[in-house]
Design brief:
The complex is a heterodimer of chains A (about 425) and B (about 475). With about 425 residues, chain A is of the alpha/beta class. Chain A is built from nine helices and 21 strands. Chain A folds into two domains: about 270 residues, no CATH class; about 55 residues, no CATH class. In chain A, the strands form two sheets. In chain A, strands 1, 4, 5, 7, 8, 10, 12, 14, 16, 18 and 20 form an eleven-stranded mixed β-sheet that branches. Chain A has a ten-stranded mixed β-sheet with strand order 3-2-6-9-11-13-15-17-19-21. In chain A, strand 2 and strand 3 form a beta hairpin. In chain A, helix 2 packs antiparallel against helix 6 and helix 8 packs antiparallel against helix 9. The radius of gyration of chain B is 22 Å and the shape is globular. Chain B has a ten-stranded mixed β-sheet, covered by helices on one side. With about 475 residues, chain B is of the alpha/beta class. The chains are: A alpha/beta (about 425), B alpha/beta (about 475).
């Protein structure tokens, strides 16, 4: 089933597929992106941002870029009974990055959901200030890869002063039933001035072959807008993810990201927030539980460009089996960003001697009137806490589970969407009892 | 307030008034140079000059050949113009006057430099109980308190002398902690090092005095390549002090030293540094490039290595005094104050590699940036699979004085054992206006208030220094702060 292919062969294979895909090479921005991908290549452990994140799985599975014509939408049936299909939300379902329906619509007023491929020139011009404008292709080979190959993009626009009652849920279904695939989903969310919304992203893999979801999402949070953003991954051992999310915030806006990862063979998340205005609040939080040979990696950046903003980062990890956790959080405070408050915390529990955690909480600060801090810890469960519970007649196993649950629940409780929160609390409990 | 403290404060104030670099004089001593540039012949020349045994020459050549294959590292957060390694002298030594028997025979010029530095050898010998192995440029010129150390069986001599008198020790330990393949500058140092200190503490001996050496960079355009090797045998203890000052020169000078420490079972090594090399002028012109590799290994069980550094000088400081905690229950410590002003750049920190069981490490780093300077903490805590029940605590604080400087923290934590506990915390802030106002109100000027607060902020580290150094370090901090306020 698995054939080994060298990294340079793999790169060349993807580049060759670019030419064979209809019409892609006609667009100059795609060609440019491909050239960027080509010049950087597949990162190795020598690249600082990939120091602990080995990409050997790329050589193991014979990945192909998925073509639009190959997409089998029947997989949506398999997802129908999934609990996350049944939480209250307005859904957009993507199979390998493509939407089955050409007629996307929201039932809520002030919300537009559409496909970039359906746009006419006038509509394209409207989003030209947004699409691809917040990300950089240089030194980001996977963004470049996505930009070169993304054959569609879901565009969500929330009109000025609209309060979206029902959360919007984007469901990513990876379906690899005949061979290993790479899909390149793309998302653009524009929350206009004064709007409020909740967006849920979830990832689910099906089929007997490996899949790699190489996604890029851009979020624009305008003045006074408020966005809750939940990212859920509770997936199989054939699932691989390299995700890049860029959030641009303007004056007085509020953004909150909660990332819950309970499964998935390889899961690399990049979340970058640009605090591009004053009085912004930006919160990033997440919890991951890894087991087996899983790898979870989060690279976050809070980029403070203006004064009087606050950012918080709070990530927790629980590691079992042979799994690996990587956290790289960076707070960047630029010269003008006086009166910045930026806090970061990363706490990890290792439950196995074969598990490893690599954490690098960075501060890069160029303004003086700031309060910035970070803390990182790693250790086993606290014996004193366990003793406290055991001395009150609780079995040791139960006591350990209680403490671990409390660690994860701390983050999950930040999710305001109740059905989702309850579902995740239950999943965490099950996972930790295994 | 006691009289002593008052005097100390008075002194601090006086020193504050002299804002220029106070050790910036240049002494004209006859120099003997190797020709400019670096090639195998120069390496042979240095080895020949020092009348080294063959194993040393071979070792140097191996390092040189390896260096040729290496590239200058670029990952550090400092900027400097490309160094032309062929445009420097690799050997400069005061002219050889054979057969010196006591201090009176030492070149009076050399002695007067030390006097200006405030370390008159003769007086120190009597008053301070410190043995000083003074290094002028590259060759050690005088060694004191030999007799007393000899009695205890301690070897404390220039490394060039140790090569002759104890070749077996040098051959065994040189490059054992920092191999010549370690990094670009360590390889360069291994090839061309001119001199440095060698310390050997025999089994069960507690060194009766603080060992100390003063380095100076004197000849213009001479890279200084010191090599220090300290070996503490089972159950021994030594405290080693290193202090640096350099005269004011206009051109950048490269200093690439290597320090190796080996602590055997139950041994303890305490290594303290006060680094005050010329930092360049207010426009960032000149100053020393201080690219140093310092590493110690806790070879045996229950051993301990403690690094303390106060870094105020050099235009670029780039060093990571590290501990390899190999023996079970061994302990590594790192205490650092790094102060940068004007256009100085510092990228410094430590590495704690936990290999043995129950190993403990503690990192306390205090960065202070002012002016246009950049100050980075970069550190690694690595807990390997077998290092069960290991413990690390790190604290890295940064203080920003001014809005044109930068303070950065890049800690790497790599944990591969579940029973290990690792904690890291870092903060960055400025001195709050409330505090300054409070002190102003009580008649303390803003500049003094800042000096007071900075000294308090750094106290945790300064307390780790031996007494004489602590006083000097406090003064240095105050001097370095000048012009950064207001």
């Amino acid at each position: 089933m698995s054939t080994n292919i060298s990294t340079s062969e793999f790169k060349q294979k993807l580049i060759n597929q670019f030419d064979s895909l209809n019409g892609l090479s006609a667009e100059s921005n795609r060609r440019e992106a491909l050239a960027q991908f080509d010049s950087y290549g597949i990162p190795t452990l020598k690249h600082e941002h990939w120091k602990y994140t080995g990409l050997t799985f790329l050589n193991k599975h014979n990945f192909d870029i998925i073509k639009k014509s190959e997409v089998d939408y029947s997989v949506m049936q398999q997802f129908a009974n999934h609990p996350l299909n049944n939480i209250e939300a307005e859904k957009v379902v993507l199979v390998n990055g493509f939407s089955a329906s050409s007629n996307l619509k929201s039932n809520q007023s002030g919300v537009t959901i559409s496909r970039l491929s359906d746009f006419d020139d006038a509509q394209k011009a409207q989003i030209s200030d947004y699409y691809g404008q917040s990300i950089k292709l240089e030194n980001n080979p996977f963004i470049a890869l996505n930009t070169a190959f993304a054959q569609d993009c879901i565009v969500i626009k929330i009109d000025k002063n609209t309060v979206v009652e029902t959360p919007l849920q984007i469901v990513y279904l990876n379906f690899a039933d005949t061979h290993a695939i790479i899909n390149n989903p793309r998302l653009l969310v524009i929350a206009e001035e004064g709007s409020q919304a909740t967006i849920i992203e979830s990832v689910h893999s099906f089929g007997e072959f490996a899949s790699l979801k190489n996604s890029v999402s851009e979020y624009y949070v305008a003045k006074n807008a408020s966005l809750e953003h939940y990212r859920i991954q509770d997936d199989s051992e054939l699932s691989h993810t390299i995700d890049f999310t860029q959030v641009n915030q303007e004056n007085d806006s509020h953004y909150h990201n909660v990332n819950v990862s309970l499964g998935g063979q390889f899961n690399r998340n990049n979340i970058h927030t640009l605090l591009n205005g004053e009085n912004i609040e930006s919160n990033l939080s997440g919890v991951f539980i890894t087991s087996g040979n899983e790898l979870f990696d989060i690279h976050s950046l809070a980029d403070h460009a203006f004064p009087n903003c606050e950012s918080n980062e709070n990530y927790k990890g629980i590691l079992l089996g042979n799994s690996t956790g990587i956290f790289n959080g960076k707070i960047l405070v630029r010269k003008d960003a006086q009166k910045t408050n930026a806090y970061q915390s990363n706490k990890n529990v290792l439950l196995s001697d074969n598990a490893s955690i690599f954490t690098k909480p960075e501060l890069e600060i160029y303004a003086d009137d700031v309060k910035c801090s970070h803390g990182a810890t790693s250790g086993a469960l606290d014996e004193i806490s366990i003793f406290y519970l055991v001395s009150r007649g609780i079995g040791r196993k139960k006591a350990e589970a209680m403490i671990l649950n409390a660690i994860a629940d701390d983050i999950i409780d930040l999710i305001k969407h109740e059905p989702l929160r309850l579902h995740l609390l239950e999943r965490v409990e099950n996972k930790l009892n295994q | 307030m006691s009289q002593d403290v008052k005097d100390d404060d008075q002194l601090l104030l006086e020193n504050l008034a002299k804002s220029e670099y106070k050790y910036g004089f240049f002494s004209d001593i006859e120099q003997e140079f190797a020709p400019k540039g670096l090639n195998e012949d120069i390496v042979r020349f240095i080895s020949l000059k020092k009348k080294e045994p063959e194993f040393m020459l071979n070792w140097r050549l191996k390092a040189y050949r390896h260096w040729l294959k290496m590239k200058e590292p670029k990952w550090q957060k400092v900027n400097f113009p490309q160094i032309d390694y062929q445009d420097a002298y690799y050997y400069a030594a005061p002219v050889d006057k054979p057969g010196l028997k006591d201090l009176n025979e030492v070149d009076p010029d050399i002695l007067s430099i030390y006097e200006k530095l405030g370390i008159p050898l003769n007086e120190q010998k009597k008053l301070q109980g410190i043995a000083v192995d003074a290094v002028l440029d590259s060759v050690s010129v005088a060694t004191t308190f030999k007799d007393k150390l000899n009695e205890a069986g301690i070897i404390f001599c220039p490394i060039s002398e140790a090569v002759h008198s104890h070749p077996e020790l040098v051959e065994k330990y040189l490059g054992s902690v920092v191999p010549h393949t370690d990094n670009f500058f360590a390889a360069l140092n291994s090839a061309v090092f001119s001199d440095g200190s060698f310390v050997y503490i025999p089994k069960g001996v507690r060194c009766p005095m603080e060992l100390s050496t003063y380095f100076r960079i004197n000849a213009s355009n001479t890279g200084q390549f010191e090599r220090t090797l300290i070996i503490a045998e089972e159950g021994s203890y030594v405290s080693y002090l290193e202090g640096c000052t350099a005269p004011m020169r206009d051109e950048n000078q490269l200093h690439a030293a290597v320090v190796e420490l080996v602590a055997h079972k139950n041994a303890e090594i305490k290594y303290s540094t006060v680094q005050n090399w010329y930092p360049g002028d207010k426009e960032g012109k000149g100053g020393i490039y201080n690219f140093v590799t310092k590493r110690g290994i806790c070879e045996g069980a229950n051993s301990k290595i403690s690094w303390t550094q106060v870094e105020t000088g050099s235009s670029i400081t780039w060093k990571y005094p590290s501990c390899i905690l190999k023996g079970d229950n061994s302990i590594g410590e790192f205490y650092s104050v790094a102060m940068t002003n004007n256009y100085q750049q510092a990228d410094t920190g430590t590495k704690m590699i936990h290999i043995g069981k129950n190993t403990k490490s503690r990192i306390v780093s205090k960065g202070i940036s002012a002016g246009f300077s950049e100050n980075s903490y970069r550190g690694l805590v690595k807990i390997t699979k077998n290092a069960s029940k290991s413990r690390n605590f790190s604290q890295c604080d940064s203080l920003l004085l001014g809005d044109k400087c930068g303070a950065h923290t890049f800690p790497y934590l790599e944990i591969q054992n579940k029973s290990a506990t690792v904690e890291h915390e870092a903060t960055t802030s400025k001195i709050s206006e409330d505090i300054i106002f409070y002190l102003n109100q009580r008649g303390i000027s803003t500049e003094d208030a800042v000096a007071l607060i900075v000294n308090g902020y750094a106290k945790e580290v300064l307390n780790q220094l031996p007494m004489e150094f602590a006083v000097e370090a406090q003064k240095l901090l105050a001097i370095s702060l000048e012009g950064s306020v207001g």
